[in-house]
Amino acid sequence: MDKALEIVARILMSQIYIISGWSKLTGFSGTQGYFTSMGLPMPGVVTPLVILIELGGGLLLLAGFKTRWVAAILALFSIATAFVAHTNFAEPGQMNNFMKNLAMAGGYLLFMKYGADSPSVDAASGSKHASQRLT
Description:
Elements: H1 2-26, H2 28-37, H3 43-63, H4 67-85, H5 94-114, H6 121-125
Helix pairs in contact: 1-3, 2-3, 3-4, 4-5
């Protein structure tokens, strides 16, 4: 049961960024335009970086590869995007998106603490235990 729960948790925590990153990749110019309209600096650099974090990080978490490091990055990214993109609380839904991102960060922090159990790349390489350092 623990393995099944951990697998489901990885699927659920990774799918949001896999889908979002894929959408940004396939709609690259629209994403870059949106980032420009938000006033983000260097949207030509930010866009591929965001895609890398979302799509790459989501896929790595799903595979359970360097889970603690990936989870740390996704937690920070989730908090950052909450404060950058979801603070217009006058717009309907922005408070929900803000809180969703904070809740996601909480889930990523648990993966940061506990890593990934089998089946995962980390477990196969022997680096899944919480007592091990982030390497």
